[in-house]
Amino acid sequence: MIIVSIGQGKLKGRETKTDNGIAYYEFLGVPYAKPPIGNLRFQNPQPPEPWDGERDATAINENKICYQKYIAKGNLIGSEDCLYLNVYTPKLPDPNTDLLPVMVFIHGGGFNFGNGIVKQKLGPDYLIDNNVVVVTFNYRLGVLGFLSLDIPKARGNMGLKDQVQALKWVQSNIDKFGGDPNNVTIFGISAGSASVDYHLLSPLSKGLYHKAILQSGSSLNHWAINYEPKKFVENLLKNMGYDGSTRDEDAIYKFLITSPISVLTEAAYKGIGNLTSNRISFGFVPVIEKYFGDNEAMITDIPYKLFKEGRFNRVPVIEGFCNEEGYMTYLEKPHLTLDVVQNKNFVDHWAYEMEESDKNRFGRKFSEIYLKNIQPEDDSNEVGMNFFADFDFIAGVKISGDMLAQKGVPVYFYEFTYEGKINFYKQNFGIIHKGAIHADDMGYIFKFPFSKLADTKDKEVRTNICKMWTNFAKTSTPTPDDVPIPWSNYTEDSPLYLKIGDQFTMKTGYEPKKMAIYKEIYDKYMK
């Protein structure tokens, strides 16, 4: 056992080893904020409270994940008391050695599912092997994390502000674990990646991190922002049998804060598909907040506008996606793919209504470009999956990265295409499909129960990706040495990106004609 003293008290951790036999210390289930229960439900996170004696941080309480519906079984799991984190470090502070770079991971799950503390499903081994400190954590999800009533007691984006609070905790305490608070990289996949994007945009996050890695998610993706929070609140109240005025926010707040968590959460999930049948939606997700003049808002303007105007935190960035992202949309809402395949309908899936003339014009453009290279041997759903790969993920990731690069930010783009035995989404859900589907690259960064299936080639790819990610965390450059190929940064004049497949190769100009159509739509409708 090992004892570390932080601002709130003493923590008892333990020593363990990675798969490769590297010794490290772990501190599990550490509170980074006051439990958001009772009157703190829906409110911004508060600093953690101190404790007496030694707090046991050697084991995970799996009941302390944030309250949510468990997708596999449909039952409700977790707790409102859930703001905890894990710290993994290969060495503790030593006056004779430098502090280590810190990598803080934000989990995905559509802002409604997942957790950051169950180690068996998020093992740090392959990052620790590269001599960095790793932090993973929970944040409030769904209605508890993203309800917005436009009043100070329920502003919205509480889940994102939990993330900010976790980063503040890192700044205050990580040096006690051998980590350098002046060298923090935030990274995430899917909704975790979109969260990283919000931290690039938010003044609340400025100075709390120094580099960012975004994998298959952007604040520009329609599923990552709720443009109609009132509609979702009205649906919630209807499902809960609320009979008061829907215009009285204080009465609504009192009703929701005293409602049983199970009733509240179940009602929040119900009917979401009917509200957004034309696209993927997770219901309660980030919103553009009302500004109350107290500098506690996460974001008060449209993300695209903030990027375009250069109102973001300038730090080096790795940004990328998988080549078969659209297969997830096919699995989640097959009727959407069918609508594109059968009806060539590319224009009725947006989160905003297009002008009729634009529907006709962009419909023609999309048809021309997506139907162009379809081969007889392709999957019959290929057109739909290709469209939704761009629509749901790639266009937002690519265009936000373009705007960062235009303002002089070092951006390293990648496309992940590798098909191995430890592709995350495929293994998790037992899927057989060509290419790499959404979040498949996660299997090459963290340890999972299926990691033991890795063959020699999988291990080589995993080793190289983890080297690149940790090199970036150490030096702001992913390939200073010891990797298969130099990874050049992306610029307007030299739009290079790394293709991560059986081989690592540099490519140029990712689908410029497709991306130009999305850019034109964003310019007009994301003002």
From TrEMBL:
Listed Gene3D superfamilies: alpha/beta hydrolase (3.40.50.1820)
Pfam family of the protein (one): COesterase
Residue stretches spanning the membrane: none
InterPro entries to which the protein is assigned, alphabetical: AB_hydrolase_fold (IPR029058), CarbesteraseB (IPR002018), Carboxylesterase_B_AS (IPR019826), Carboxylesterase_B_CS (IPR019819)
SUPFAM superfamilies, alphabetized: alpha/beta-Hydrolases
Keyword DNA damage: no
Broadest EC class assigned to this enzyme: hydrolase
An example Gene Ontology molecular-function term: carboxylic ester hydrolase activity
EC number: 3.1.1.-
Domain Carboxylesterase type B: from-to ranges: 3-516
Keywords for this protein: Disulfide bond, Glycoprotein, Hydrolase, Serine esterase
Similarity comment: family membership: Belongs to the type-B carboxylesterase/lipase family.
This protein's name: Carboxylic ester hydrolase
Organism (species): Euphydryas editha
